[in-house]
Amino acid sequence: MICSLTEPLYAGAGGPRTPTDRLPGMRGARRDSVAFTVVVTVLVALGALLMLAILALSGAPGTLLLATVLAAVPVGPLVGCYLWLDRYEPEPRSLLAAGLLWGCFVATGFALLVQGVGGFVLTFTDRQSLELVAPITEEASKGLFLFLLLWWRRGELDGVLDGIVYAGMVGIGFAFTENILYLAAAYNGTDGAGPGGTEALTATFVVRCLISPFAHPLFTTFTGIGVGLAVNARSGAARFLWPVLGYGCAVAAHATWNTSTVYGFDNFALLYVVLMAPAFFAVLGLAIWSRRSERRMLAAALADAAQRGLIPATDIGWVVDLRARRAARAYARRSGGRPAERAMREYQQAAIELGFLHYRLLRGTPPPDYAARGQQFLQRIDRLRPTIAFPGQVVPTR
């Protein structure tokens, strides 16, 4: 640990909580948050205009509507999988939605723009564009959202699992828009693979939406892992190298996948079975392992916080165990209705956020505004704890 039990970890800890707007770092964090929101909003709006124009030129309205419906089929299940992984410390829904929209509009629009200009100026062949240009530009355009998070919203990233979740959202959004273009081109016969029609549309749908819907989320996951490792890296060199290495792996995986399609379906199927499917399950295993390790990490961090008087030690089990958390919420709902359940959920979330922050502080890699964020969580804990009761405790009188 980097601090003794007698050292204050957060401004005002152990005494009256200081208003967070008076704490060092909070103003800078708010500026960063505003900058992130403005940049992402403007780029999403511009990307949406560009992609809507491209979509409008890519086929008749009826074709686009059919392609959009088919492209949306894998979106719900994929988003549900990532939300399931993100149960310990759910990320802000606004940021997850921003990642999805970034993938839909900014990443696709930027990649198409760069590939179009590069192809016109440097005259890439179709094969060079597929095997090299597309992986580099598409993974850069998707990964930029993660780099912006690391730069301006680093406090929202707690480790590898968060990087995987945000990367997955960006990849899902990118694949959705790209699939619309591919499905429309297949139906119209403008993809160079045949006369088009229902048969071509069905084949494209099966390959892209049913067999390999995880491809783009998987590629970008490598960048997400690198960003997640950078968050808890102690040295400046590691904080720089991990994201770069992750991006390099994302490009390599993407290029390998695209190259396999050049040599026919047999090679594509072989690569899918031998490399891509195992890689997908390996990343899934890493995500599940990361979530389980987060439970152990949270238990240790909150135990230390309890020793310092920041949270009751008896609450830790009801916070770090997912089954116990559900039981506590159900008990609160039976005892006090929906308001009591909301208070329990908010208390558990505040304690989880404090646990992640406390872990990073003890590790020596806290975000710059850790004191202000810690005070914010402690204020919520102080406000909510007298109003809730866990199973076996007396329900407070309201």
UniProtKB/TrEMBL annotation:
Name the UniProt key words of this record, in alphabetical order.
Hydrolase, Membrane, Metalloprotease, Protease, Transmembrane, Transmembrane helix
One example of the protein's molecular function in GO is: metallopeptidase activity
Concerning InterPro entries, the annotation shows: PrsW
Transmembrane residue ranges: 34-57, 63-85, 97-120, 132-152, 164-185, 205-231, 240-257, 269-289
Q: Name one Pfam family in it.
A: PrsW-protease
PANTHER family from the entry? PROTEASE PRSW
**What is the official name of this protein in its record?**
PrsW family intramembrane metalloprotease
